[in-house]
């Protein structure tokens, strides 16, 4: 149970609640027994199909019943249906689960059922005697719309993000990756603290760089500008700092590393107690030491001083800073 | 709020869970029953009260969940076999010294049949994939002494694809790092003796940044704390030998503050309704933090360490030393 406030009840109130629940329990158990006994008999009827829907509306986490429902479709209903009817059935499944998803955005089984539906949409309708991809196209496009509404409701829902990536990777006509970059820009613009969107952006950019659709050098500089805005807006928010660390990577580009160190140093002047400024400076200066100036006593000394300040400022992670300081001494 | 563990209340709370058949929520959670029994039994064992639930009844329940068609365990009698309930069933039987009741060959066949060409595992025949199921497979095969049947390279290759620049791991390739997925990937790699796949300095940094000023741990950057991350984050830190990188005193105080000191059980955070899931993961966290009078918990398998040692499966994790008071 998550986010359910404790509300101690008197024994009388509890007994009353249980009393009220009795009819619901009987209804649920009777329905469950009915459905599971039909399942055992491998009954693939429309009646059974309707009953699974009723049961799943009461309990969308009943995975066995989702399985049964799919088996009814596969073994009972699809064999007697035209491709058009199958498409209609699956479109209905998707609509029904959209409602369920809005009420239960973190139920894995619902997302899973939608995947199965999408993957089973038939080719069609026929155009000039050849099956077209229109049904698939329509369903997958709609799916992207649904998942965007889910991310509007909760921009950090990782099930929705995973599903989004799945849809983008599998839809019959892929969308250009640049449009996903634009999507993450919108999500980040709406809230700099949305690390899920920063994460998605990092994955999207790698794809764009590797396929040559974006110039890695120019694009990386654009990213530094975007992330600097976020850092200056809220220097206490981890999301942009973690993304910044990704942009720097292993720190092979010395000029870039020095430029960013300078920029963070300036931010630290404005925000003298910023833990993340200091933490990042230590990390980047250590990269300078490792990659470019292994003998610089000045850099080492600067790291040691920053780490000592961090030990005071962020005592929760005291021993991590101590370990890092010890490594520098060696 | 309490500053010490109210263990007798938690024991009573877990014992009473099976008696709540007059509550709708009991029936609506039937699909989690096998997991709940594993959580409850492990919690009792961590508190040194493994005998608080009837052993024979428990074993009978587990065996009644056998899915003869699939050759594995479901979450409840007449529910379909699933990877999650199959691992829980094996763990329960092992902790009740009744592992001989498992049809090992069939279960191994079921598990191996769920590995996908990419190396990840599906949860059941309908094919939802997730690194959670990969961990369940690796864990179960190792408990059954059948890891030699696993294509280790293929399995590790998938975990590698789930590793992100922040050192963490996601549910599937491309997914955002999440502390629970970090636990399953790191623990699976530990079982497979492949912790060299982990970018340890980066991951331990990311894990240490999960601790919030109130002492609780979150599962991802800029999210709320939750008691269950006391285990997901702490187990990974323990496996990587870096529990010291967070403030154990503050975490301990946070877990204790989430106890229901009237009716027992631990909640996701202070003031919320307790449940058996947060009760075990809160206790597991306390055990790793060296809380007095608790039994040592193995963070790789989330079971009392003695069972794992008996099987010769103990890995090189480190917990804090158990305090005497």
UniProtKB/TrEMBL annotation, chain A:
SUPFAM superfamilies the UniProt entry points to: Protein prenylyltransferase (SSF48439)
Keywords: Prenyltransferase, Repeat, Transferase
Cellular component aspect of the GO annotation: Rab-protein geranylgeranyltransferase complex
InterPro entries linked to this entry: Prenyl_trans_a
A Pfam family it matches: PPTA
EC number in record: 2.5.1.60
MF terms in GO: Rab geranylgeranyltransferase activity
Catalysed reactions, as listed in the record: geranylgeranyl diphosphate + L-cysteinyl-[protein] = S-geranylgeranyl-L-cysteinyl-[protein] + diphosphate
Source organism, top-level taxon: Eukaryota
Keyword Transferase: yes
An annotated GO BP: prenylation
Keyword Transferase: yes
Role description: Catalyzes the transfer of a geranyl-geranyl moiety from geranyl-geranyl pyrophosphate to cysteines occuring in specific C-terminal amino acid sequences.
Family named by the database record: Belongs to the protein prenyltransferase subunit alpha family.
Stated name of the protein: Geranylgeranyl transferase type-2 subunit alpha
TrEMBL record, chain B:
GO annotation terms (biological process): protein localization to membrane
InterPro entries documented for this protein: PGGT1B-like, Prenyltrans, Ptb1, Terpenoid_cyclase/PrenylTrfase
Keywords assigned: Metal-binding, Prenyltransferase, Repeat, Transferase, Zinc
Cofactor: Zn(2+)
Domain of life: Eukaryota
UniProt xrefs under Pfam families: Prenyltrans (PF00432)
Annotated EC: 2.5.1.60
Record field: catalytic activity: geranylgeranyl diphosphate + L-cysteinyl-[protein] = S-geranylgeranyl-L-cysteinyl-[protein] + diphosphate
GO MF annotation terms: metal ion binding; Rab geranylgeranyltransferase activity
One GO cellular component term: Rab-protein geranylgeranyltransferase complex
Zinc keyword on record: yes
Top class in the EC scheme: transferase
Record has Nucleus as a keyword: no
Cofactor note: Binds 1 zinc ion per subunit.
Domain Prenyltransferase alpha-alpha toroid residues, every copy: 9-303
Subunit structure: Heterodimer of an alpha and a beta subunit.
Family listed: Belongs to the protein prenyltransferase subunit beta family.
Biological role: Catalyzes the transfer of a geranylgeranyl moiety from geranylgeranyl diphosphate to both cysteines of proteins with the C-terminal sequence -XXCC, -XCXC and -CCXX.
PANTHER family reported in the protein's UniProt record: GERANYLGERANYL TRANSFERASE TYPE BETA SUBUNIT (PTHR11774), GERANYLGERANYL TRANSFERASE TYPE-2 SUBUNIT BETA (PTHR11774:SF11)
Protein name, as recorded: Geranylgeranyl transferase type-2 subunit beta
Provenance organism: Suillus luteus UH-Slu-Lm8-n1
